[in-house]
Amino acid sequence: MSDTIALPNHEECIRLLEKYSTPLHIILHSEMVWEVGKVVAEGLSRNNYPVDIDLVRASCLLHDIGKYLCILEGRGYHDIRGQEILDSEGLPDIGRIVVQHVVLRGEKDRPLAEEHVLFYADKRVVHDEIVTLDDRFVYLEKTYGKTPEAIKRLNLMKEETLFLERRIFDVLDFMPMDVARLVLKPLQTALSGAP
């Protein structure tokens, strides 16, 4: 958790994305990853899992900060590039989480933390739409499953993500199918004018 540096607020995260030429569609994806991450992190906090919601917010919003640069250059891993960018910006606490949004590091059964929230939230969002894990992995296979090795890696990632989903929702007081409703509920309330 971040005790030594001030974490960027929401607007500062967006400005940082813009500084690195992040396209709007990636920013919108990151915003939705944050909305999912917020629901999960708040649920974990309610159930005595000490996740830093501000760190989750910054990590979710900045998780794809290296993606566009990797696309432009036609090489590299955007998770690693993101960590490098965040380290260079003096945000290593965020970088250590962002680098794990593609592949989690460490033991599978270690205590749930911010990196688990980001990893899971990112897997629940295609573009800027909340989807099931099955739908996300269909999309990933269509997009990235060009070789037998890539398909094998995606299948391992899916197993890891399903395992993590079970761990997270064993703790929470709602189910995976409730995430979209919980994300949209504040918006629906605001639009309806209800208190």
Automatic annotation (TrEMBL):
Protein's name in the database: HD domain-containing protein
Parts of the chain that traverse the membrane: none
Start and end residues of each HD/PDEase domain: 22-136
InterPro entries listed in its UniProt record: HD/PDEase_dom, HD_domain
SUPFAM superfamilies linked: HD-domain/PDEase-like
Pfam families to which the protein is assigned, alphabetical: HD
